[in-house]
Amino acid sequence: MAEERVVGIDLGTTNSLVAFMQGDKPVVIPGDDGLNLVPSVVALGPVRDGGRPTVLVGNDARHTLLDTPERAIYSVKRLMGRGVEDVAEELKFFPFRLVHDLQPGEVFRVRLGESEFTPPEISAYILRQLKRNAERYFGAPVTQAVITVPAYFNDAQRQATKDAGRMAGLEVLRLVNEPTAAALAYGLDRNKEGIIAVYDFGGGTFDISILKLHEGIFEVISTNGDTHLGGDDIDNLLIAIALHDIAGETGMDLHHSAEAIQAIRKAVIEAKIALSSQPVAQMDIKLPQGGSYQRELTREQLEELIQPVIHRTMAPCHDALRDAHLVGDQIDEVVLVGGSTRIPAVQRLVSDVFELPRRGKQLRTELNPDEVVALGAAVQANILGGGSKATEDMLLLDVTPLSLGIEALGGVVAKIIQRNSTIPASASESFTTGVDGQTNVAIHVLQGEREMAKDCRSLARFDLKGIPPMTAGLPRIEVRFLIDANGILQVSALEQRSGKQAEVSVKPAYGLTDEQVESMILESFDYAEQDIHLRQLVEARNEAATILSAVEKAPSSPAWELLDPPERAEIALLSEKLRVLKDGDDLQALRAGTEALDKATHRFAELMMDAAVSSAIRGQTMQSADDRLGQGPTASHPIARAEFQ
Amino acid sequence: MQTAERVSAPAKCWSCGQEVTNGQPFCGSCGKVQPPRQAGYFDMFDLPQKLNLDVQALEKQFYRYSRKLHPDVHARASQQEQEWSLSQASLLNDAYRTLKNPLERTKYLLKLEGVQFEDERGPANTNPSKVPADLLEEVFELNMQLEELRQNQKLGEDDPQLRRDLEGAKDQFVAQLNLLDEQVRSLWSAWDAAWEQSDETKKTAAKEAMTALLQRRSYLQNLVRDVSETLKES
Hints:
- The complex is a heterodimer of chains A (645) and B (234).
- Chain A is an alpha+beta fold and 645 residues long.
- Chain A has 18 helices and 26 strands.
- In chain A, strands 1, 2, 3, 4, 10 and 11 form a six-stranded mixed beta sheet that branches.
- The two termini of chain A are 25 Å apart.
- Chain B has 234 residues and is mainly alpha-helical.
- Chain B is 61% helix and 2% strand.
- Chain B has a two-stranded antiparallel ribbon.
- The two termini of chain B are 38 Å apart.
- The interface between A and B is medium-sized, with 29 and 23 residues.
């Protein structure tokens, strides 16, 4: 059976994409509308007979956003892994409707029509759509993926993304940082050597990463960014100006009119995009309250307005350079990623930071900035899926973007893993008790660069439990903090004197528990008619692939020799037929073909079973007999390996 | 911190049964990742416990080992091998990060030799007993100036002369830091020679000299940080 394909997914603030390696080239898989970009919008469709509304994703959902905005949500990535107090700022600009009766520490939920969802659930709907797009394209199930995240995402945001994957029925093999993924896409040409900077200015996040490329190794030296800085901020600024204008002209305060804001949002985005290629754009917005708002915007005006926003990307660039012990003109190549890098003012800013014009160098923009992250994710997916000629020497060494610390006396943070440490990275710390007979020790883990715990992001509080009662200060509990290759923290503890594995209970500050994630796994059989047909087709193809692969191995079995030549010829003929049917769409014919081959191989299967049993009796191990039978399929099929006991 | 408890019994590869060199994280014969043993950073790279080190060679070895140990390489291996790979790769990264940095390398070696450093985190000059004796007067003066600067800040006043004085003091401390680094480096060869000759007396002498320099360095470093932060805030 063919190896299952691992796909690469860019789960973006504005748009999401799925890609895979076709031969030696990564390609984006289009949706059934033929478009590569799936807008990261989720909406509730009309309520069906069963009483449950359908969930729409992408362009279908975008229409809902304009007509009935309270039934749609966009830019949910901004809410991933965040607490209620973090998002207060967002709520001023985004029409997110939070559920009010939250308990402290609970993951918040967003209201959509009459239902409530956590941010990972909404992301899961987007992921499921991408998964379906890939399955439709391959005609085979897809269950494993690499998903990209902003490099500057913290532990909670990463965990939330991983949870979303699981809810969508995807095993997330790796979370890859978006700028690093982009570097992979650009670096497929393995002869590339030197230092590159990736400037990734997307819809909602900004990242800068500096990498060293050497013989196929992509070593991230430093990364920095702002998880709340992107094209959205430019849009919000323009919306605020328009609302102010309208209030001045008509006296109408439209701040609370979701319909009006969506109409304005659509218009300012169109104007912003147009101004990247032309000097003037017109906005003409029909207001739902009646009347219209018209305005002409020049590129000059836009650039002046957005200067403060794009200027905020400078400090992270300088910090990343400083951490890498480099200056701007030591960077050999600068790669642009993300839709916001199409803005000419942004390109000028980046060129200046890295002194490109003086050195006669150009920004690297030849890969589509909307797609390059997904393409890179596909490259990493290929590497993890076993690699190919195109990726065989490639290895990614990424870093953790934020320092990890624990709260010490006086609310001070003791840093135990510094930012920009290559991951996986670990640190061990010893803890002891302060009171005689104490059996619990509480540890507060934080992420961030500030000195005081209250200024850092609280990741989790751990309770070391079950410490054997001893005199205060005598127990020595070794706690190992390990940041894995996804940038996610794992903790384990050992009491040194008793050698007892201390129990660690993790209370993530904003995360979902395993049980909660489990309960949110999307039902995968709520498909429309055509999806059921597809699923049946996919299953039938799998079944056919299974038997074909078993038949392929048959000639190496001694039992094969015991068949008559006509029997062998029939098996060969039916296999050939089935191979053709497998690539077609005819479900009935495919099933019939599988059944026919199944029947024709019945005697062979029996012979082989006999051989296996008798060789086992002759003293060979069951294991080697089993090996000879081949890595059998697990379905109930006569060539299956399970029956001899 | 990782301790260098040398494992004496030679290990056998769990997969092919061949002997695995002490501390080596993967099998030299079949290349399979090995279960983590309590290897120290020098063992990880099969290096002697010496301080002069070819950083370029270390980088090469780090890349070579990364190709064998990184979790990406073992994404399709058994659960057990994936866990070992995660553990070994983190140890490799920790070891490389420590050994490639001259200061961290020196500190790590001294820790292996039983030196305990004061907790280096947190504000520096809260405890006057920690101030090196010859710096007492300077530090006292500096703290007065810092306090004055903070007062000015509260009152919204600016004293350019005071700022210049502090900048000057900072530069002077930074120069001292650089000098200390050179002094530490010059002791590396003394340590390495003593290590080669297994001369315990000379080893102890080098160790103690380096420890004293590093303690002073750590104090100065915190001082510089405090001054920079106060200057930045005002």
